[in-house]
Every structure is written in C-alpha cells, then in structure tokens.
Design brief:
Number of helices: 6
Mean pLDDT: 79
Low-confidence stretches: 28-41
Shape: elongated
Number of strands: 3
Distance between the termini: 56 Å
Order of helices and strands: HHHEEHEHH
Radius of gyration: 22 Å
Helix content: 55-70%
Largest sheet: 3 strands, mixed
Oligomer: single chain
Structural class: alpha+beta
Strand content: 5-15%
Length: 150
C-alpha cells in the first residue's frame, strides 16, 4: 500500500513539474538555434546541395560542406548504430557526390576533428577575423587532419 501511494505521489509530482515549464525552454532553444544559424556565413549553392545529398542517406544524421578553390570537403556524422559502417557509408556518399559534381575534387570524411575545423573556419571567415594567408594555412591543416588515421 505504501508503494502504491509513493508511486502515485511521484507521478503527480512529475506531472506538476512538467506543466510548470509551459514550453519556455523549447522556445529559448529554438531562438538560440535560429540566432546561431542566421549568424553563419551564407553557404554557396554547391555547399548546400552537397549537404542535402549527404543527408539524403538514412544513415547520415548531419553533414557540413566547405568549398575550397581546389576541392569540395564534406564531413558527415551518422546515427549511433551506423558507426560500425562509417567506411561503407563514406563510400556511398562520395559516389553520390562525385556523380553530382563530376568536375570537382570531392573529399568525404566522417572525422569529428575535420568537422570542428570547418565550423571554426566558417565562423572566422564570416566574422572576417582571418587573413588570406591564415585561410590557406587552415585549409592545409584540414588536409593533414584528413590524412591522419586514428
């Protein structure tokens, strides 16, 4: 009897606490997401199309593309279960991107380090905090990160 009363009391308490938020947290999170996404550099059509192609695969959870002078770099992350099959997914995504952009040197990766570097690079370019020389150095750094094997 004590257990039943405790469970009922716990359920009522959780229900009351859940009702107190009235969706405020959700709206704050949505506002933050909108602000950060609007602040980012405008992506080129090629970058947007590359991200869309990568996200069309059901295994891919998200993708980021960056178009340099000599290559198109696409970094993606997969759902939790699909982490065992990242190399297969990488080949499928690369094949689809090469089909869409035949004249472009396409580089596809699932490496988190490269993804973070692209995000930092895009942010710095958007805020105009980076010189042309620094931009070239950071692109070279991305190339060396890509060649590393964990």
């Amino acid at each position: 009897m004590k257990t039943v009363a405790f469970v009922i009391l716990l359920a009522v308490s959780v229900g009351m606490l859940a009702g107190c938020g009235k969706g405020e947290v959700k709206t704050r999170v949505e506002d933050t997401v909108m602000r950060t996404s609007n602040d980012q550099k405008e992506k080129s059509d090629k970058e947007q199309r590359a991200e869309e192609i990568a996200k069309e695969f059901k295994e891919v959870k998200g993708a980021i593309a960056y178009d340099t002078e000599d290559e198109l770099v696409v970094v993606f992350h997969v759902t939790q279960y699909q982490k065992f099959f990242t190399e297969k997914i990488e080949k499928k995504v690369k094949k689809a991107l090469e089909k869409e952009f035949p004249d472009e040197n396409v580089v596809v990766s699932h490496d988190l380090k490269i993804r973070l570097e692209i995000e930092r690079l895009r942010r710095d370019v958007e805020q105009k905090q980076i010189s042309e020389k620094e931009l070239e150095k950071r692109i070279e750094k991305m190339k060396t990160l890509r060649e590393e094997k964990a």
